[in-house]
Design goal:
The complex is a heterodimer of chains A (265) and B (428). Chain A has 265 residues and is α+β, with helices and mostly antiparallel strands. Chain A contains ten helices and nine strands. Chain A has a single domain, classed as 3-Layer(aba) Sandwich (Peroxisomal Thiolase, Chain A, domain 1), CATH 3.40.47. In chain A, helix 4 crosses helix 5. The longest helix of chain A has 17 residues. Chain B contains 15 helices and 17 strands. The radius of gyration of chain B is 21 Å and the shape is globular. In chain B, the strands form three sheets. In chain B, strands 1, 2, 5, 6, 7, 9, 10, 11, 12, 14, 16 and 17 form a twelve-stranded mixed β-sheet that branches. In chain B, strands 3-4-8 form a three-stranded mixed β-sheet, with no helix packed on it. Chain B has one domain: Peroxisomal Thiolase, Chain A, domain 1 (3-Layer(aba) Sandwich). Classes of the chains: A alpha+beta (265), B alpha/beta (428). The interface between A and B is large, with 87 and 81 residues.
């Protein structure tokens, strides 16, 4: 399936947006140690910004940078949000409240607990009337999201924003899902090229497990890739950052592979 | 709503992208097997008997120690150890939790497991996808674990930590169903609140069309938990009695639980001849508010129109609209505005929430299975617990059941965050 990448973004420690991270992914400059970023969701009105969760702020940061590159009307863009565990910070507060009589939870806490909270905020922030999907596939959430976004872009001839994100859960839940660091990534997929196109991709879903899953050369980036489902996008992002075409192989569940040919545009 | 920041993104004058205003018409996909478990009973027969005999599955809330004055639509067999004499815990393994017990109970109805295995053998395990919807997955396990934290360290029980991936995680139900049926194709859980298991049909149709798979086990599973009971209570939208959709004195929703599954395949593989098929789908966003729908139903209208366009049908071709119909004052009123603007005053419509309650992430598949039963039984359900249809509603809301030929049904599902999905089913 042939598609075009018209925008891309990422967010992680030392990887603050595409503009500043492209050279790191292209191996032109090293990745320096840095504290986790603290993005603001400038897209949201001030009262919603204040109430928004960290996940919402991370996801909206990469969504916003991606759409700015693509120079397309956001009202025409459908969206897919892929996260394995989504709002674990809210889940912790919710379950703490439910374990404490009289189990008082606020309407806001309840709204924010849903897996599609980011999707809802994206709609409120942009006014986009297009379809929005929130999905989960554990460590393959990015890949599942990529398939969903690719199918939509291809068959419905529409630009599709894909956002993958997951943040480290708070202490009691961290033991169940130890994401050491947060990561968010976004891509804008379209069926036809535009002046903003960064790369053309050709995507194939394969059952052939002999293809080796692409890892990152930089040990720090490889630790990130293997430690957070959203960062499993890194080989694809790095390929988009580099001037020469390449092929990457991503693991989808245990039984399938996504083979993606990336051609700079 | 526009906060000004978006304007700079708009492309001046010329459109960079080719954009199709009208959804592409899709080929019908056959729903070759389907089933449902809810407070009405296990499987299609019990569900249909309850619909026809107007027997509600709602009862005063007796879920755990919940102290809320409300009714619920609870599935008995999940609490009664699923099925007597069965070692369900062993069968579920690490997946054992209320939500996956409900999923297993659903799989066991109406020959669904043999049908899925036959599809696996027909297409190959890699060519059958599992795409399910859920809003809260196995969150009840986390709620229980938080009441058993170590008083000194705050740690959660180690048994919970080990099973987190298989219970709490949002992928849990699809992971379980995929493993249980021995499938190896694409999989995911869509979680867009109350539209989750309607949207699975849209994704499944695209995955088959894109060639990612040949058949899809679609469905939805959502079970009762403290989060939704106390959460909806905090929003002040729960009725103290059984919900009364479209009643002039309706005062809120009733929560239920259900698990439903369907097997979706291309028609050339399973033949036609009276089979129930997915004819079209439409998805949209309100982009308005996290928990309030757009006041004029703009998103709902777009979803219904997109479904009609994709199925190549017009409003006159639809014999019945299965409403989302949650029975809150504003939701029913806004949906009525939207349905009336698309279908006018004479297309029959109704909400079945008075039978099994609002099953949230499983509401979409529940609506889909009811739509299939309308088609195969030449039957339209009315509205249960409702005594007088709100005269302010302009659509043709049915109070009593009807028996009449039914060829095409549109089913609505609208979720938190303004997430809308309409599906059209028909016989082919």
């Amino acid at each position: 399936m042939e598609l075009y990448i018209n925008g891309v973004s990422l967010l992680g420690a030392g990887l603050t947006g595409w503009a500043r991270s492209r050279a790191v992914l292209a191996r032109e400059t090293p990745l320096y140690d840095a504290a986790p970023p603290e993005p603001t969701a400038s897209l949201l009105p001030p009262n919603e910004q204040r109430r928004s969760s960290e996940s919402v702020r991370w996801a909206l940061y990469v969504a916003q940078e991606t759409l700015q590159q693509a120079k397309t009307n956001v009202h025409d863009v459908a969206s897919v949000f892929a996260s394995s565990d989504s709002e674990t910070g809210i889940l912790d507060r919710l379950c703490t409240a439910l374990a404490t009589p009289p189990r008082t939870i606020s309407p806001t806490l309840f709204h924010h607990s849903v897996h599609n909270a980011v999707s809802g905020y994206w709609g409120i922030a942009t006014g986009s009337p297009q379809s929005s999907t929130a999905l989960a596939c554990y460590d393959s959430s990015f890949c599942a999201g990529l398939l969903e976004a690719a199918a939509q872009a291809q068959l419905e001839e529409r630009s599709v924003l894909l956002v993958a994100y997951d943040l480290p859960p708070p202490p009691p839940l961290y033991a169940a899902r130890p994401f050491r660091e947060g990561f968010a990534a976004a891509l804008l997929l379209t069926r036809t090229p535009s002046p903003a196109t960064l790369a053309r991709i050709d995507l194939v879903l394969s059952n052939d497990l002999t293809d080796e899953v692409t890892s990152m050369d930089d040990p720090r980036l490889e630790t990130l890739r293997s430690g957070n489902q959203a960062a499993r996008s890194l080989p694809l992002l790095a390929a988009i950052a580099r001037p020469q075409g390449t092929m990457v192989c991503l693991e989808y569940l245990e039984e399938q592979r996504l083979l993606i040919e990336i051609v700079p545009w | 709503m526009d906060y000004g920041l978006i304007d700079s993104w708009a492309v001046e004058g010329k459109a960079c992208l080719h954009r199709r205003a009208v959804p592409q018409q899709q080929a019908p996909l056959i729903l070759s097997r389907y089933t449902l478990v809810s407070a009405l009973g296990n499987g299609l027969d019990q569900t249909f008997q309850a619909l026809r005999n107007r027997r509600s599955g709602l009862r005063p809330c007796d879920f755990e120690d919940v102290g809320i004055t409300a009714y619920i639509g609870r599935v008995n067999d999940v609490d009664d150890g699923l099925l007597e004499g069965d070692s369900v815990a062993r069968e579920l393994g690490p997946f054992d939790c209320r939500n996956n017990r409900l999923a297993l109970l659903g799989l066991r109805q109406d020959g669904f497991i043999p049908a899925a295995i036959a599809a696996r053998e027909r297409y190959g395990a890699h060519r059958v996808a599992v795409i399910l919807g859920s809003s809260t997955s196995g969150i009840l396990e986390t709620e229980h674990a938080y009441s058993q934290r170590n008083p000194v360290t705050g740690a959660l029980p180690s048994s919970y930590l080990r099973s987190y991936r298989y219970t709490q995680n949002m992928f849990s139900s699809a992971h379980f169903v995929r493993a249980y049926l021995g499938l190896r194709g694409p999989a995911m859980v869509i979680s867009t609140a109350c539209s989750s298991s309607a949207k699975v049909f849209a994704t499944a149709a695209r995955f088959i069309e894109a060639g990612f798979c040949d058949a899809v086990v679609v469905g939805g599973v959502d079970s009762l938990c403290l989060t939704t009971l106390y959460g909806f209570a905090s929003l002040g939208v729960m009725s103290q009695g059984p919900c009364r959709p479209c009643d002039e004195e309706r005062d809120g929703l009733t929560l239920g639980e259900s698990a439903g599954f369907g097997l979706l395949e291309k028609s050339e593989h399973v033949g036609r001849g009276g089979a129930v098929a997915l004819l079209g789908y439409g998805e949209s966003s309100d982009a308005y508010h996290m928990s309030h729908p757009h006041p004029e139903g703009a998103g709902a209208i777009r979803a219904m129109q997109a479904a009609l366009q994709r199925s190549g049908l017009t409003a006159e071709d639809i014999d019945y609209v299965h409403l989302h119909g949650t029975a809150t004052r504003s939701n029913d009123s806004i949906e009525d505005t939207a349905v009336h603007s698309v279908f006018g005053p004479s297309t029959p419509c109704s909400s079945t929430k008075g039978w099994m309650g609002h099953t949230l992430g499983a509401a979409g598949i529940t609506g889909a299975v009811i739509a299939a039963m309308c088609l195969t039984h030449s039957f339209l359900p009315g509205t249960l617990n409702t005594t007088r249809i709100d005269p302010a509603l302009g659509s043709q809301v049915l109070l009593g059941n009807r028996e009449q030929p039914v060829r095409r049904v549109l089913s609505n599902s609208f979720g938190f965050g303004g997430n809308n999905c309409s599906l059209i089913f028909g016989t082919v």
